[in-house]
Design goal:
Strand content: under 5%
Structural class: mainly alpha
Largest sheet: 2 strands, antiparallel
CATH class of the largest domain: Mainly Alpha
Distance between the termini: 35 Å
Order of helices and strands: HHHHHHHHHHEHHHEHH
Number of helices: 15
Strand order of the largest sheet: 1-2
Number of domains: 2
Helix content: 40-55%
Bound molecules: heme C
Number of strands: 2
CATH superfamily of the largest domain: Cytochrome c-like domain
Oligomer: single chain
Radius of gyration: 23 Å
CATH topology of the largest domain: Cytochrome Bc1 Complex, Chain D, domain 2
CATH architecture of the largest domain: Orthogonal Bundle
Length: 386
Amino acid sequence: MNAKRLSARLACLLVVGLLANACENEDPFPSFDELDKLQQLHTMPQHPPRDTTNRFADDPRAASLGNRLFHDPKLSSCGTVSCASCHDGDGRTVDKPKADGCNGGVTGRNPPTILNVDYLRWFMWDGRADRLWNQAILPMTSPVEMNSNPTILRTQLNGSYMGEYTELFNKTPDTTQDDELLANVGKLMQAYERQVNRVNSPFDEDVKRFIAAVDAGTEKDDPAYLGLKTYFRKGQCIVCHQGVTMSDNLFHNLGVKDSSPGAPGQTAAIDAMLDWKFNAAGPYSDDRTGQDATRLNTVRSTLGEKRAEMDGAYKTSTLRNIALTAPYMHTGELKTLEDVVEFYNKGGDEVGTFSGTRTETIKKLDLSDEEKKALVKLLESMTGTP
Ligand code: HEC
Ligand code: HEC
């Protein structure tokens, strides 16, 4: 920290009692605390964190088989819908609010990207899956997505993938019981998805350069200054979109207009996730240390006090590759990044149009046109190279 910044900061601390507001205006960006958070935003690890609940998570044979299964529409009951039907293209999602599944089915929510997905802690907008392999069971068996079942999967595995499956799992698809078969196919999908990442982005370079400029005392001249400052201060984005994934891995109610049956979000999903036979504490996990049971029990024991907050709450999205994944929010109601910034600027959708109570952080922001543009530019810089 250079001397100029340090003295400004100290002067600020001295007058803080008298002139709190004036001081806030003068407080140089970034403060010590903000600099710390900036340092955590850049440079994602090249690989997602280990997942001990899937012994094949990093097995290249599993990833290669998973790749073929991910793209195979014959795993669906209608024969025309694969995972890739809804998670393809640059953004690994679809470009409309809802996606089409088997027999005219339409999904209840906007498909999130699968890029960098295994860096996240919870899956689905409402967090109803706690591991990437068990997540895959949900679209396979959903009547509006692939509408599949273990019999269909078994037939297809026997036909086209028998050798590879048997080599990995030491049993044939025929001798694998139904639930185990679903979990196994999920584990193959996860091994593949863990390789579908876009990690290095111009954003990372910008943040690194900006931090160097802070050291040199020239941060105000840096092209990233206004965008980052707005992200941290007036925009409050950093409160939730933090760390290298730019997600706190928590759930918040932003007040996104939604009158669908799924509108209560996390409240409606949490009990089912905790009691789910496929969760990471269940019999299909490959981690026998019991650490997941402990973790889920902690979630369970604090449920009472949190339940009200969970109503209408959704997972904080990763912002990595965000320019590739329009439209936005769990409903897909916002078409562009400009629309997203407008949404936050007005403090969310109208009260009465969503479930639960909006979190206090979301309120009118009063951003200038310049600040809005700087935020959009910042979001656009988060696109990674494949
Ligand atoms: C018909 C479209 C469709 C199909 C087919 C489909 N998905 Fe999805 N996917 C979605 C939607 C919609 C969501 C969000 C659902 C929700 O949160 O309620 C989603 C969510 C996900 C997520 C969670 C991402 C996150 O950030 O939480 C992953 C991972 C995923 N899908 C992988 C898959 C895999 C693997 C398959 C195949 C087994 C698959 N999807 C098939 C539409 C689809
Ligand atoms: C209180 C926590 C919180 C704050 C503050 C916040 N976000 Fe979010 N953000 C979320 C959550 C939660 C979602 C998903 C909400 C939903 O769909 O209901 C989200 C969704 C988004 C999305 C859409 C993601 C997608 O894949 O559709 C973008 C873009 C975004 N936020 C950018 C921002 C920006 C820019 C700011 C600052 C102006 C900001 N966020 C402030 C929690 C937050």
